[in-house]
């Protein structure tokens, strides 16, 4: 067996791991500088920076982000009507204020700076850039107008500069279909249905609010390929959407019939039981309510999308063809999976939001597991591949959705960051990160040289603070927490204002 380390394979067996290189371990002093670069300033990135600064005396942490604004999904992903989830940015701002931490916004990994440049400049590179793309269904008609991923729609209403021009057409149809029943699906359905005077006092962008005010959508269908026991949302979020003002909830009683396998699932998961109970209660409470002014939220279970069909004009979506499903035990995963029955039906709609999960993207030089959409890793240490003979990529780590896939709430990233930082500190103690030949790594000075040489204008945290105060001032005039700046040009202008 090769020297050094052994890894636990996914099957739980110990497997050999080739040594990362011919280095001899020596003990590093905690006072020696340790140059750390975190790529991505969302929750996973900031929690990592925080734990690194607390865990290693001489650590200097630079956080780079492709946007001029920090906080990743907290700014671009969390729904505008969930302000309590955004309070965590106060904690992240305190991390950024640490004298050993710097923020470099408007710097894109793979374009402005390569992974290999970062690895030559820093002792430790932690990739925390998340999942900025979408899983696709791979079914006919997916390119029709009126079909968007939920991520695009969320970025649009949250003012992400890459999606501010999405302009979803909310005026030409009465019905929207949301595919998927996770918390993102609930977010987008809630934003479509929520009373606009309630949304007006949130940090939703002004253009999205205007568009939602003019929306003709009265019915939203939340379509799940499995049943109410398997709906991927959590109880708090479900309770919120079920309680929306002036929204009638429609659930077919027949879909609530459970099998022994469902009962078993609910015995094993309190969340699954709670979600099922909430749906059952909603089905009986709302059934006799026939107020014509109400909007409608339909939970559609046991249906999987087969194709999108055009409307009469030919280029816009007019319906989704769904196949009825039943659940079968999958011996490999031990889960109940949806299997088609060969019975089809069309669900008419003029807007489709695909909410079937986010997807991470690789950058050049990064090992990447395309099937799982994650970077192969062992407790956050990047591995050269998924194979049995994988080696550890010394000094390269991963955290957040890029490490474990697109699941979990903001706080999940704290545990995830703690695990990755523990791996870094373990390697640091062994001396593999600050080996004498690495002492010439310059960290921040080296990054500044690269950016200077390539004429990249980065946005420091003080630049973000200028954006922040401009947005808050604009928000005050409209009785909202902030009015977000949503174009690249205006963001960079605000960041550079004297
Ligand atoms: P998710 O929870 O994984 O839900 C994905 C949904 O898409 C599931 O219903 C899944 O059904 C369905 N799906 C996947 N592939 C499909 C296919 N090919 N055809 C049809 N349906 C398909 O993902 P998410 O909603 O994007 O959320 C991501 C994470 O962020 C989650 O952990 C979520 O809890 C979290 N989040 C939390 C909040 C909050 O706390 N308020 C808000 C937003 C997001 P199956 O179960 O059958 O695969």
Task: Name some characteristics of this structure.
498 residues, alpha/beta, seven-stranded mixed sheet, six-stranded parallel sheet, 21% strand
Helix content: 25-40%
Q: Which strand order do you get reading across the main beta sheet?
A: 5-4-3-6-20-19-18
Extract low-pLDDT stretches. Answer: 1-26
Coarse morphology? globular
Can you give the mean pLDDT? 92
Give the helix tally: 17
Ligands and ions found: NADP nicotinamide-adenine-dinucleotide phosphate
Query: How many angstroms separate the termini?
Result: 61 Å
Tell me how many strands there are. 20
Radius of gyration: 24 Å
Largest sheet: 7 strands, mixed
Portion in beta strands: 15-25%
Q: Which class do the helix and strand fractions yield? A: alpha/beta
Explained architecture:
Strand 3 (34-39), helix 1 and strand 4 form a beta-alpha-beta unit. The protein is globular and about 70 Å long. The N and C termini lie far apart (61 Å). The protein is 32% helix and 21% strand. The protein has helices spanning 43-55, 72-76, 83-86, 88-96, 115-121, 150-157, 183-193, 196-199, 206-213, 235-242, 260-268, 270-285, 401-404, 412-430, 444-453, 461-476, 488-496; strands at 6-8, 14-16, 34-39, 59-64, 101-104, 124-127, 133-134, 147-149, 175-179, 219-223, 247-251, 295-300, 303-310, 317-329, 336-348, 351-354, 358-359, 377-378, 381-383, 392-398. By secondary structure, it is an alpha/beta fold. It has 17 helices and 20 strands. The strands form five sheets. The chain has a seven-stranded mixed β-sheet with strand order 5-4-3-6-20-19-18, sandwiched between helices. Strands 8-16-9-10-12-11 form a six-stranded parallel β-sheet. A three-stranded antiparallel β-sheet has the order 13-14-15, with no helix packed on it. Helix 1 (43-55) packs across helix 14 and helix 16 packs across helix 17 (488-496). The structure holds NADP nicotinamide-adenine-dinucleotide phosphate (NAP). NADP nicotinamide-adenine-dinucleotide phosphate (NAP) binds at residues 137, 179-185, 187, 224-226, 230, 232, 234, 237, 304, 355-358, 406-409.
